Amino acid sequence: MTESALLRVEGLTKRFGDRLAVDGISFSLQRGELVGLLGPNGAGKTTTISMIAGLIRPTAGRIFLLGRPLEEDRTTLRRVGLMPEVPSFYPYLNARQNLEVMARVYGADPGEIDGLLETVGLAEHAGRPFRTYSQGMRQMLSLANALLGDPELLLLDEPTNGLDPLGQQRVHQLLRDLVARGKTVLLSSHLLRDVQELCQRVMIIHRGKLIEDSPIERLLRPGELRVLVRTVADERAFILLSGPARPEWISSVDRHDDHLEVRLSPEHLPELSAFLVQHGLYLRELRPLEGDLVTAFFQLTSGTR
Length: 305
Ligand code: ATP
Known about the structure:
2 domains, Alpha-Beta Plaits, Rossmann fold, 6-stranded mixed beta sheet, alpha/beta, binds adenosine-5'-triphosphate
């Protein structure tokens, strides 16, 4: 059987002493996917990424890179670029020298280095020692390092951590370009907006378990629509929508200072306006509220799941 997934993990588990950091995670990444890996602090994101990058050995489970089991064939790791959560470079070497060392270690072509420094916006600082770099510059060097050798799969652990908005935009654009060239990216982030902007698919890890793996659309619109409603008489509208005459397709109504927030199934939206108007409650405003990944994320991770 030929394997179509670039990366497949099955029942991936890591135990540190009696702490279960990663608990039986399974998923696949297809070529050209940009997938977000979200989870609160200590959820197991870094441990998962480190196992895939071959830095730590799983307690149980298997990793297949390019269809080959990692425990039998580590040469596939050459096709993987890692940007770790905390980059570490030689403090007294400059950016170019650091990348030259890495290129030698990983067997990459040092001829790529100038182009990479340009790509990440470090060309003009390439001669300065690493220890003089700001956090954002350190992150960018780490990204250049991950891109050495033109890898197929990029594992990025909090890549925009500490970057200013311009740096964040640069990273976003770079990731979009990479995916357009058929590269595959697994992106761990706390910046939920990052993921919302970049990824079509999101996985959520909570207490070592993969509790969600869905297209971002589904997370943003989990079957229910939130609608902002302002009428000529909100108090009366609230009583109507929350009282015994409430249509069964309305799940809940909340009263705010200058509007109501109604939750309902999306197909009933046209009926909501008709229902209000029938009762003399003419509309000043009615609009769906944006689905919000931040809310979806906290709903998922604050429960007992
Ligand atoms: P963060 O967002 O804070 O970086 P994370 O989701 O990346 O968190 P991990 O760093 O993977 O989480 O940690 C998962 C769990 O494993 C945590 O409880 C952590 O304390 C524990 N852990 C991680 N590395 C080790 C280690 N080397 N020895 C012992 N426990 C560890």
